[in-house]
Design brief:
By secondary structure, this protein is of the alpha/beta class. Its cofactor is Mg(2+).
């Protein structure tokens, strides 16, 4: 093979070399050669070539013997038998003498460049059909870490060659339609980063669940990165907002979730690696600082821009030097292939009851079937098609079983674990990181696995009915009246990013407080008033926080930011907390701070709390979170809305408190709206308009207080009617008065979703916007489009909604 290069340094490679060194090594070369000027750090190394692999196959007829085994597979031979035979033949064939010499020479040169003899290296397989935009092959072949010395390096290279024919790799190529003998293998040899002493993880340049393109998601765990990819640990997760990342004056980190990280991979005493328990301090602390997250995100954005497509990268931090490195990069192959023009949704149509288990939702589908609990993937025949796979973790050996499953449930793993990555690619719903699935579920048990309810995936007992719908977004008509969406759960916000909504008309802080904060804010400020049980619960929830009030503002800010980012730069109206006293009391530590009221629905709620001695400090924490989202994170599309504001004096007092806490109306474009849900808001609309920038009609409370009907009363349900003339005339009057004062006005509620006639009534009033649940958006949009021609035929003026798209919409920071 005179003139053929068997080994090439990364610095001499580029992405055009995929056919020679595979996608993984071509990308490492591309970044080494072209992104060094952008300060993207890639550990040095070299790659063997496809020609070198061909030399191995052709030396003693190995290629022909592999062809014979593949023919046996197509004739019905067992996959595991064929795979074992090919691997055995490959390992029995000596590496060509010329290849061995060139690998050793390149390794010795790498050591000289690094200033040390026999440096530790990572040895990674890189198939020539791997890491392509149309197929990932991620994890199909072997990787060996902490390889030291020429002899061990040659052994690792040989084993990488054999791993081209692992059972999972053969199965994957069969499923993807690749010719086995047309796929060659390159081996990358790269200086090890001492992440065993620090941490490592994965980066996606879009949200891996929804495909939302405006974020970068970074997973991080202690030790070597293999525990993150394999799903052995529940990693930290950091979400970075790309538009804010481009402004050095902003903090683009819009969400942080600290994972359990109970295990880590470290160097073994005599080479390779081992897994050990992490310390309590490692589990409770973040792996990355804000500055490190930003640096990795900057690099990821640079790599994405260079490649021109969403990317999936791996990173590592050296515990000796503190330096960060990018150790792998490949095109993202799941969300980037999905059509953003079609919205597919699943929903349970039966009442599910209490879930048996919960974890991280992967995908947005629902699956059901009999549970099959498995410790290892060796017994393929035991797994029935359509079963629910339940196991501790998965690795590539599980893939032949995973493709048979209707759903997958694991004890461990995060959104970038092997189980998550492969489940997305297969389109199989998975709930990962449940902690106890293998102990809670049993063989043959019929369950339903739902990933259709946000970021939390749940496993229910029994086979529950569900439906699937598909909406072609191109069929949704344009309307003059803005149609917005209501959002509460930040973990579900990104899934609706492709809806052509005009913003978020109502984001409820109560959901974030109840589900993500869980603690009454006053309990964090006055822990001395708590009993022993509540103090213990607060200690557990706020572990790692020296300033417990920071826990409240962090969780609240991250929740608001995810919702605001999902619609940027369209307006997102965030309503400050509107719990009733009985609901506040149910929060951890809430009972000592809440009175017992006979009728909390019309009691101490909304604006009246914000300036009172009993909650003023708690409201200050809400303001702190809102100010952080707008001023520090740059999400100035957030509009603050005050609920249940009974009087003009109350409005003035609340606005004064907000100003004291750094939320001054008009500063940095801040707009403040008011809920219009009390007859006083209608009667004094012009006066309220002097204090607020817009109104949002809360039709449930307005109906309740106009008709004097408890909206929760079963006995009076027949009287509660949002179409009663007293209510509809109040709405008409409010729309006219708001618009006369130059204020925007919308309605947020369920009624437009259920009643086309009510939607038509709203359109006829000239209302600026309606805001509905996301799954009702397409239907309401159709209703609005149908009503608008009739309205304009009657000679009415157009809605004043242009204020939303101009004055209310901020320009990007």
């Amino acid at each position: 093979m005179a003139g053929t290069r068997r080994v090439i340094p990364f610095a001499e490679l580029g992405r055009q070399e995929v056919g020679s060194v595979g996608g993984k090594n071509a990308s490492l070369g591309e970044m080494t050669a072209h992104l060094a000027d952008a300060a993207v750090r890639v550990p040095p190394g070299f790659a063997t070539t496809a020609d070198a692999y061909g030399e191995l196959l052709d030396g003693h007829g190995l290629r022909g013997r592999i062809e014979e085994q593949i023919a046996r597979l197509h004739e019905g031979a067992a996959l595991d038998e064929v795979g074992a035979a090919i691997r055995s033949m490959t390992l029995a064939e000596p590496l060509p003498t010329g290849l061995r010499a060139e690998i050793v020479s390149a390794y010795e040169q790498l050591g000289r460049d690094e200033g040390r003899e026999d440096p530790e290296v990572a040895v990674r397989s890189s198939a020539t059909a791997e890491d392509l935009p149309e197929a990932s092959f991620a994890g199909q072949q072997e990787t060996y870490l902490n390889v030291r010395g020429a002899a061990r390096l040659l052994e690792a290279v040989h084993r990488c060659y054999a791993s081209l024919y692992t059972d999972r790799a053969i199965d994957y190529r069969e499923r993807m339609g690749f010719d086995h003998l047309q796929v060659a293998l390159s081996v990358g040899v790269q200086i090890m980063v001492r992440s065993d002493l620090a941490g490592a993880g994965v980066i996606f340049t879009l949200d891996p669940e929804s495909g939302f393109p405006e974020v970068i998601v970074i997973s991080a765990a202690c030790g070597l990165g293999e525990t993150v990819v394999s799903g052995q640990v529940d990693p930290d997760e950091y979400t970075v907002f790309k538009p804010s990342l481009k402004d050095p004056g902003l903090n683009p980190l819009i969400d942080v979730r600290v994972g359990a990280k109970r295990r880590k991979a470290v160097y073994a005493e005599h080479g390779l690696t081992r897994t050990v328990d992490t310390t309590a301090e490692e589990r409770s602390q973040r792996v990355l600082t804000d500055a490190e997250v930003r640096l990795l995100a900057d690099w990821a954005l640079t790599v994405e821009g260079h490649y021109g497509c969403p990317m999936d990268l791996e990173w590592a931090k050296d515990g000796l030097t503190g330096d960060l490195w990018i150790v792998q990069a490949r095109p993202e192959t799941v969300q980037s292939r999905r059509a953003a023009s079609t919205l597919r949704r699943c929903r349970l149509t039966a009442m599910p009851g209490t879930p048996l288990l919960a974890g991280i939702a992967v995908g947005e589908a629902i699956g059901s079937g009999p549970v099959v609990v498995m410790d290892s993937p060796v017994d393929l025949d035991r797994f029935p098609s359509g079963g629910v796979l339940v196991t501790g973790i998965t690795d590539p050996d599980w893939e032949p079983i995973m493709k048979r499953a209707s759903a997958i449930v694991t004890d461990h793993g995060g959104r970038t674990s092997h189980a998550a990555i492969v489940s997305r690619e297969l389109g199989v719903p998975a709930v990962v990181g449940t902690g106890r699935a293998t102990h809670t579920l049993h063989d043959g048990q019929q369950v339903t696995v739902s990933c259709a309810e946000g970021g939390r995936g749940e496993v229910y007992d029994g086979l529950l009915a569900y439906e699937e719908t598909e909406t072609d977004l191109a069929d949704i008509p344009a309307t003059r009246t803005h149609v917005m969406i209501n959002l509460a759960d930040p973990s579900a916000a990104f899934r609706w990013w492709c809806l052509p909504a005009d913003g978020v008309g109502l984001a409820r802080l109560e959901f974030i407080v109840a589900h993500q904060v869980k603690v009454h804010p006053m309990a964090l400020l006055h822990p001395d008033r708590l009993d022993a049980a509540d103090r213990c619960a607060v200690d557990q929830l706020t572990e790692g926080y020296l300033d417990r009030t920071r826990y409240f503002s962090d969780r609240l800010a991250y929740g608001i930011a995810r919702i605001a980012a999902s619609r940027w730069p369209a307006p997102v109206v965030v309503r400050t907390s509107d719990f009733k006293t009985n609901e506040y009391a149910r929060l951890v530590g809430g009972r000592p701070f809440e009175p017992v009221e006979a009728n909390p629905m019309i009691g101490w709620r909304g604006a009246s709390r914000y300036y009172s001695d009993g909650y003023r400090e708690g409201f200050a924490l809400e303001c702190r979170a809102l100010r952080r989202v707008r001023d520090e994170m740059g999400l100035t599309n957030v509009i603050v809305m005050i609920p249940f504001c009974r009087s003009l004096e109350e409005a003035d007092r609340v606005l004064d408190v907000m100003a004291e806490e750094g939320l001054r109306r008009g500063e940095n474009g801040l707009k403040v709206h008011v809920m219009a849900e009390i007859p006083a808001n209608v009667i004094l609309a012009q006066d309220f308009a002097e204090r607020f920038d817009g109104f949002s009609i809360g039709s449930n409370d307005l109906t309740q207080l106009t008709l004097g009907v408890d909206r929760d009363s079963e006995a009076l349900a027949h009287v509660f009617d949002e179409t009663d003339p007293a209510v509809t005339r109040s709405i008409e009057m409010l729309v006219q008065r708001a618009q006369a004062a130059g204020r925007s006005i919308g309605l947020c509620g369920q009624r437009p979703s259920d009643d086309p006639a009510f939607t038509e009534f709203l359109v006829k009033t000239g209302i600026d916007s309606v805001s509905v649940a996301p799954d009702s958006f397409a239907v309401v949009k159709q209703h609005v489009a149908a009503a608008e021609p009739r309205r304009y035929e009657q000679g009415r003026t157009a809605p004043s909604g242009t204020r939303w798209s101009q004055a209310e919409q901020p320009s990007p920071s």
